[in-house]
Amino acid sequence: MVSSASPSSEIVGLGSYVPQKVMTNQELESIMDTTDEWIRTRTGISERRVADVTEGTSDLAVAACRDALQDAGLRAKDLDLMIVATCTPDYFMPGLGVLIQNKLGCRPIPAIDLRGQCSGFAWALSTADAYSKMADYQYILVVGSDLQTRILDYSLDGRNSAVLFGDGAGACVLKVKKTLGESQPSGLLDHILGSDGSGFSHLMVPRPGCQANNSSFISHNDIDSKKTAPYMDGRQVFKYASYYMEKTVTELMARNKLSIDDIDLIIPHQANLRLSKILKTKLGIPPEKMVSVIEKFGNTTSASLPLCFVEARQSGKLKKGSLIITTTFGSGFTWGGNLIRW
Ligand code: UT7
Fold it and tell me: How far, in Å, is the centroid of ligand 1 from the Cα of 234?
């Protein structure tokens, strides 16, 4: 039984967008020192999508938002609030949300940017849920969009990250519910969020930025020395990701008095297929209760969860009434998860 307080928002629209261009592992083999065999064995990834030069992060987001609005049977003008998760915005300033708000043709609603990196979408869902309890909003758009391939380092130094990431976007329309006290609560039921900034240097993009002891926002040396690309200590990140992704699921189940048998779907952030397999083994999750899109999209950062929602719905795994748990981990370190009755 779900014992948390009655939810006040539910997902009524779901959308996604991935760029058309597919980059296979074989194509990566031809431009950098890697192999299809290494990538598939270590990560489970076969291919990923790469944005066209005419597309920016906001364009990926807008396409996903339109898809979600259509799914909900709503227009952009119906939206009251937008929460946007990204770590690869079009501009350092202003944020991504205002660009999406303008391109979609929304009213002058608040468009709030949120930085949770790979945990961004889980954090954005929980933030939207919190807003739904405290303000007079009816429809809230939650967006995750990232365009990582433009910042990757395809040389030997960056190969552990370059093979992982892909571009994509996803969005959910939330409807704030007025009816409380249902016998079987539906919608967003519970959330766990966490961070540990002592791990920040294990997965980061060092430059540009406004850190101490750097007199410029960016320098030629930063570019030449590839400091504008993600740096990752993969083994450290893997260790923490494995621990916190499992902890998030077990805590969400424990405090809602649920077991794996009660859960219809576990949706893990798509960082590495090995991470999902460890989670599956440790928690005894039957394969049909797991969702995976990493094989075809790689790690799409804040788009990872909604792309899984879409996949699960298309494959018939996600149905009205399904009880799902999401679990994420990302740069920061950040982690989080959501308990949702669809
Ligand atoms: O989304 C946010 C959270 N992100 C994650 O959770 C990612 C977590 N980390 C990982 O998924 C894995 O650590 C990686 C996939 C990034 C790397 O896999 P690994 O098994 O931890 O490999 P490693 O970094 O320990 O490297 C093993 C070997 C090294 O060679 P030596 O020193 O053993 O000779 C690397 O240089 O693999 C080499 N290597 C590669 N070889 C071919 C690293 N990247 C590549 C590559 N192709 N792309």
Answer: 6
For residue 20, with 0-12 CB atoms within 10 Å meaning exposed, 13-18 middle and 19 or more buried, which class applies?
A: exposed
User: Is the beta carbon of 28 within 6 A of some atom in ligand 1?
Assistant: no
Consecutive 10-residue runs of the chain (342 residues): their mean pLDDT?
59 98 97 97 98 98 98 98 98 97 98 97 97 92 98 95 98 87 83 98 97 95 96 97 98 98 98 98 97 98 98 96 97 98 96
- The confidence score (pLDDT) of residue 135 equals 84
How far is it, in rounded angstroms, from Cα 44 to Cα 169?
21
E strand or H helix at 69: helix 57-72
- Tell me whether residue 272 is one of the annotated catalytic residues: no
Whether the CB of 238 sits within 6 Å of ligand 1: yes
CA distances for 13 relative to 16, 73, 139, 339, angstroms: 11, 8, 10, 17
Mutate to test the pocket of ligand 1, among 48, 86, 160 (most ligand atoms within 8 A of CB): 160
Ramachandran angles phi, psi of 10, nearest 5°: -135, 155
Known catalytic membership, residue 269 = yes
For residue 106, give the amino acid letter: C
Q: What is the pTM of this model?
A: 0.96
Long-range contacts of 89-92 (CB under 8 A, 24+ apart): 89/57, 89/58, 89/113, 90/56, 90/57, 90/58, 92/208
